[in-house]
Write a structure and sequence with these properties.
Elements: H1 17-45, H2 47-58, E1 59-64, E2 71-72, E3 78-90, H3 92-95, H4 102-109, H5 113-122, E4 129-135, H6 137-144, E5 151-160, H7 168-171, H8 183-187, H9 189-193, E6 197-203, E7 209-217, E8 225-226, H10 231-248, E9 252-259, E10 265-271, H11 290-293, H12 303-312, E11 321-323, E12 328-331, E13 334-337, E14 344-346, H13 347-353, H14 356-364, H15 368-377, H16 406-411, H17 420-431, E15 435-437, E16 449-451, H18 455-466, E17 486-496, E18 499-512, E19 519-526, H19 535-538, H20 540-553, H21 561-578
Helix pairs in contact: 10-20, 12-14, 12-18, 13-18
Catalytic activity: Preferential cleavage: (Ac)2-L-Lys-D-Ala-|-D-Ala. Also transpeptidation of peptidyl-alanyl moieties that are N-acyl substituents of D-alanine
GO molecular function, one term: penicillin binding
Domain Penicillin-binding protein transpeptidase: 253-548
């Protein structure tokens, strides 16, 4: 049986290795050309698009924090400074991939775990969320030491107020983003804030900065602000006002001190106060700067203005006399009274005794429009324009809205309202020879001023006001040894629904030294409940205590040397009279000295 051999297919083409190799080479070449072309397109033609895509994933523009400008008092003492702090933040997309680390992180942050989990879950699609802001760098370092994935820190700044409550109402405070919210922090926010910078960085997938690419814009720190406030006088006013409120069981109080020649605010305090370093919580009412926002009826502090108006009108002279007997007078269906029957008073006596009837008689002799314009010229009825946020304009109705009683009550401080700052501004004008100057909180700032009364009239009224603090006046407790004090008390009943309550606002406004005034000071105490409610006994002593130390601190020379020398001599005489006579000499050393204790008697005298 013969073996069968396979039959070769003669129609099959022979295998062409070379051709196939060429085909593969051509295919690979075409692929290479395509790849090179695509790379060229990506790198040259469409590079910007892909660069944006890459940067969106790895390149970030992050802010460069900048510090807020420092606020200092007129002597360079810091009142508000920015200190570096750290804020802890997280990338929720990364952090939520490690839920087992959340309890550890919550404990490190000192927050409840459910609160942290909720916060992260609500922002699960975000790449940034704050966990804890503005904490001590050491605290931040301790939190980061746990190495929880997706948790980082960044540098920020926090405002610190070294003077605390004493300066709170002047400075105000900033919010968590370091923006001014109240006070001068708000008024000068743009000046103080500065401009944060920015830089581009490359971050890895863990959020860590791998490389700084470039500086987009440099950070511009905030500008410093030098205030007219004197920290020493501010603290004196705060201390004495607080003591007066405690002593008189009063609801609130305010005090403001102006530099008479320049209009600079040297001190401004209010109570109750608050801690600007920890603003959250507490009573929002305590954050109100009553000196510039709260309106009071000025009471008898208005009488020097009424006298100045009458003298300027030429209706009276300082020696003109008025009969105020029997101590009251009817006006329509109302009766106006003095504290008691002062009889015949000259114009000076009206101020000395604070006679309501005398002030009404002066006002009745003046034209309505003239009296209104004169009072308005002293700043009543318009805001002081000091630049402080929220300052009130007060209430001063024009003559067209007056009734038959308005001008009479205005003459002794009812029927109109003003802030303590407005009253201080008006008194500073009297002390500045009749020139009204806009108050300022910035040291060296020259503000607008205008002549509102003739210098000789202002000086004459100032001399009349000196009698208020001298024997026979209503504020002898405001007198300062060695200085002439020109001032005026104001005890006004507080308005209530349907009339006036048996609650009082006590005000003392004064100028010192009266011969050449340096300080204009207003002290207001609301609703004293511990005995007296007369301004001379409640607000006057605060004025004296503050001004005594302020005059010494500012090296203001005394203008009443005679009284000071007389008081020194009298005090020396009292001290001499209180010294006991020396014991007579004992001739015999062995004799018993009756001035020695028995144990030392016969010991040969004093060693």
């Amino acid at each position: 049986m013969s073996e069968r051999r396979p039959v070769r297919n003669r129609n099959r083409a022979p295998f062409n290795l070379r051709g196939r190799m060429m085909l593969v080479g051509v295919a690979l070449g075409l692929c290479s050309v395509a790849l090179v072309g695509r790379a060229g397109w990506v790198q040259l033609v469409d590079a910007e698009f892909y660069q944006r895509q890459g940067e969106a994933r790895f390149v970030r523009e992050i802010p460069i924090p900048t510090s807020r400008g420092m606020i200092t008092d007129r002597n360079g003492e810091p009142l508000a400074v920015s200190t570096p702090v750290e804020s802890i933040w997280a990338n929720p997309q990364e952090l939520l991939r490690y839920p087992d680390r959340l309890p550890e992180l919550a404990k490190a942050l000192d927050v409840p775990l459910d609160q942290l989990s909720t916060r992260l879950s609500q922002r699960a699609d975000k790449e940034f969320v704050y966990l804890k802001r503005r904490i001590n760098p050491d605290q931040a370092k301790a939190i980061l030491a746990h190495n929880v994935p997706g948790v980082f820190s960044q540098r920020e700044f926090r405002r610190f107020y070294p003077q605390g409550e004493a300066m709170a109402h002047v400075l105000g405070f900033t919010n968590i983003d370091d923006r001014g919210q109240e006070g001068l922090e708000l008024a000068f926010d743009e000046w103080l804030r500065g401009k944060p910078g920015a830089k581009r960085v490359i971050r890895d997938r863990h959020g860590r900065i791998v490389e700084n690419i470039d500086l987009v814009r440099p950070a511009e720190p905030g500008k410093d602000l030098v205030l007219s406030i004197d920290r020493r006088i501010q603290f004196l006013a705060y201390r004495e006002l607080r003591a007066a409120l405690e002593k008189n069981n009063a609801a609130s109080g305010s005090a403001v001190v102006l530099d008479v020649p320049t209009g600079e605010v040297l001190a401004m305090v209010n109570l109750p106060s608050y801690n600007p370093n920890a603003v959250s919580g507490g009573n929002p009412d305590s954050r109100r700067n009553r000196v510039v926002t709260d309106l009071i009826e000025p009471g008898s502090t208005m009488k020097p203005i009424t006298v100045a108006a009458a003298l300027s009108a030429g209706k009276v002279r300082p020696t003109t006399r008025f009969d105020t007997s029997p101590g009251y007078m009817g006006l329509g269906r109302f009766t106006i009274r003095d504290h008691r029957n002062y009889g015949v008073l000259d114009v000076t006596g009206i101020i000395t005794k604070s006679s309501n009837l005398g002030a009404v008689m002066l006002a009745q002799g003046m034209d309505d429009q003239y009296f209104y314009d004169f009072v308005r010229g002293f700043g009543y009825g318009s805001p002081p324009r000091s630049g402080f946020p929220g300052e009130a304009a007060g209430v001063l109705r024009p003559p067209a809205r007056w009734d038959g009683l308005t001008k009479a009550t205005m003459s002794y401080g009812y029927g109109l309202s003003a802030t303590p700052l407005q009253i201080a501004q008006a008194y500073a004008a009297l002390g500045n020879h009749g020139r009204l100057t806009t108050p300022t909180f910035v040291k060296g700032q020259i503000n607008e001023s205008r002549q509102v009364v003739a210098p000789e009239i202002a000086d004459e009224v100032l001399r009349m006001m000196q009698t208020v603090t001298e024997p026979g006046g209503t504020a002898t407790q405001a007198a300062i040894l060695g200085y002439h004090v020109a001032g005026k008390t104001g005890t006004a009943r507080q308005a209530s629904a349907g009339g006036y309550a048996r609650r009082y606002t006590t005000t003392f406004a004064g100028l010192v030294p009266a011969s050449n005034p340096r300080f204009a000071t207003v002290v207001v105490i609301n609703d004293p409940q511990a005995g007296s409610y007369y301004a001379g006994l409640v607000s006057g002593p605060v004025f004296r205590a503050v001004m005594e130390d302020a005059l010494r601190v500012m090296d203001v020379p005394p203008d009443d040397i005679e009284t000071w020398l007389a008081a020194q001599a009298k005090g020396e005489a009292k001290r001499q009279a209180a010294v006991p006579p020396l014991p007579e000499a004992i001739d015999d050393p062995g004799a018993e000295d009756p001035t020695l204790p028995p144990a030392m008697a016969g010991a040969g005298g004093l060693p």
